[in-house]
Design brief:
single chain; about 290 residues; alpha+beta; Lipocalin
């Protein structure tokens, strides 16, 4: 038995190693540079354009000041990769000005890729500026690294990215895949009740993370009832059920403008209202993503 377990874990390690090695870091990366324990909210913006060829790394970096995005330094870099770790060293190419504001210090990077969160993050230390060191967090993006003084994009994405990172959310592309792969299921209610049962909390929490973590995503919450009672009463009951889910999401930190409710009363059953089971399937809240 021990031998079988050893072989299994050895095989699993090989598979995981191959998954890491299959990851190619070529492309655009964006993120934040935190110098000497700086608050992420005040961090500088950093862009990397990486080219990887047979574990040899090259490319360009651009650092822009959060306080003044016209102040920047662009640099070339080279380095190597070993499994999921990248070592980079910069050389200055261009800076926006010769003032002390310009982030001209050349950096050496030690970055590690996390396959779960898909962040590329690690430590930086300057090779030519004393006591200049910090941390960097990067995610895959569409931002372009350029050598011109005019930036190619604003820093409008930074606030939401920092917010998500501090909440422990994975990289934006992970949340987007979670949304694309998310499978909705109804939330069922007891007869004439609108309380959310604890058995649904874990499912709702997963949905809440996706909605909260994607900037332009909203969730539509639609309440339904069985056929017992008048039309007017059931419209109110279906609204109370949708409101109960909305209140649950708000407690998870989702802003109210991302939560849209609708209520149908008994007008749209999914099963007959002649049996106990059929009525139970009709007493529900269902969901759909909206933009």
């Amino acid at each position: 038995m021990k031998k079988l377990l050893f072989l299994f874990y050895s095989f699993l390690s090989i598979v995981m190693c191959n998954v890491v090695l299959a990851q190619n870091f070529s492309g655009s990366w964006s993120g934040i540079l935190m110098i000497a324990g700086e608050d992420p909210k005040n961090a500088e913006v950093i862009y990397l354009s990486i080219e990887e060829n047979d574990k040899v790394i090259s490319g360009l970096s651009r650092i822009e000041l959060s306080s003044d995005l016209m102040e920047f330094a662009a640099k070339s870099f080279s380095g190597t990769r070993k499994e999921n770790t990248i070592i980079l060293a910069e050389e200055l190419v261009r800076r926006s000005s010769k003032t002390r504001k310009s982030p001209e210090c050349k950096l050496n990077y030690t970055l590690e890729y996390d396959p779960e969160t898909e962040y590329l993050k690690g430590n930086v230390v300057s090779s030519d500026c004393r006591n200049y060191f910090g941390k960097v967090v990067l995610f895959r993006s569409n931002h372009v690294v350029n050598l011109e003084k005019e930036p190619t994009s604003t820093h409008s994405w930074k606030h939401f990215f920092v917010r998500n990172y501090l909440k422990g959310y994975p990289a934006p592309q992970v949340l987007k895949r979670e949304q694309e792969q998310f499978v909705f299921q109804p939330i069922y209610f007891d007869h004439d009740k609108s309380e959310v049962k604890p058995e649904y909390h874990e499912y709702l929490n997963r949905m809440a993370r996706v909605v909260d973590g994607i900037h332009d995503l909203r969730i539509k919450i639609i309440g339904h009832t069985d056929a017992d009672g008048t039309d007017g009463y059931n419209m109110g009951l279906s609204k109370r059920r949708a409101d109960a889910i909305r209140a649950y999401f708000k407690k998870q930190g989702i802003h109210e403008e991302k939560l849209v409710i609708d209520f149908k009363g008994k007008r749209e059953p999914v099963s007959d209202n002649l049996s106990r089971e059929g009525k139970q399937r009709n007493r529900r809240v269902v969901f759909e993503f909206a933009y």
